[in-house]
Amino acid sequence: MNDPMTAAVLPLGNELAFWSRFRVTFGPALVGLIGGTLTVGIAWSMMVAVFKNIAGVYAKYPSVDAPWPARDFTLPYAVMVPMVFLAVAAPFIIGLVTARLVRPKGQWEAVSAGLTTAATASAAAYVVWIGWVVTIGMVIVPSISDMSVLAKSSRTPAEATVLPSDVLTAPYPELKATPANDRGQLFSNKIESDQAVGSVYGVWFGVIVSMAAVGLPAFCGTLAGAWLLRRGGSRWSNLVSYFELTVATAGPLVVLVYQMVRVGFAFGQPIDWLRCAALAMVSAVVVKGVIGRWGWPIRLVAAFSWALVLFGAGIGGQFTASIGYAAYAVYFGLAFLLFQKWHSAPSESYAEETELSPVLA
Fold it and tell me: Is residue 242 in a domain?
């Protein structure tokens, strides 16, 4: 009982158990927070010119204390390019990091870790850039045209018989029935109402964009990474398979969310069900290829077809006829390879079924 070796091993075992529990409990949240924050490079590239212009506006008002965002945040290309690349790659990488950190023993543990990572990554991305970028886009941008008209109404008319507020009646004829001295206030109320509604839409839209652009890839990546780690295989093969599964599963969901948001915020824009259905079908082929360990030729054609369908090549996208015909050739090639595979090697079905066992574990 007083063996010094045992006394030394017990504290070490307790310390290892503590860090193991800490890694499993807090690891997904920390990975999500860091990964979501790394996506700030996208906002930096989009908004640096906007804040530079804001700084220029405040410079004309020396009596006003400029807020800290009103400055030039321009970075050298040597810094900006890696930041943008990391911002685009981060949502698709953090799932693998979570899977390797937590090492879920079953699919339910992977779902739990994936949900935590997706939630924290979405929240971090919303805070560091998506929230305010979308809010600016939903509040300020739609009112720019009205504010420009309001600015023109302060000019002295060239004709003496024309009132300054007559400028406001051009885009909104209903203001002609309003007394000239009341038009400015009524028009200002309209802008304020538009911005209030835009603020509501901005919050909703920002949360949806955060969950779709960052949360979904993180969740799908965690499930894919956990399954591949349980299945085993070479590191390079698993890495390629991870990106195949993550992109193929998250892609259709992101496109569907985008289509639904477009319907909600841009009336008259129906959901492109053909594109969504085609992308789901090609995604299923990509996933089946990874599960069944298909050869690289057919998996490369499937991945190329997936990219073409994503951008709408040959199914309604804004491409030239030659690109559309080339896309049809790729789609036909994939169909031919699938027909050849499923009719020349029926014995492979058993092997593919055995690959599914880690998913159900």
Answer: no
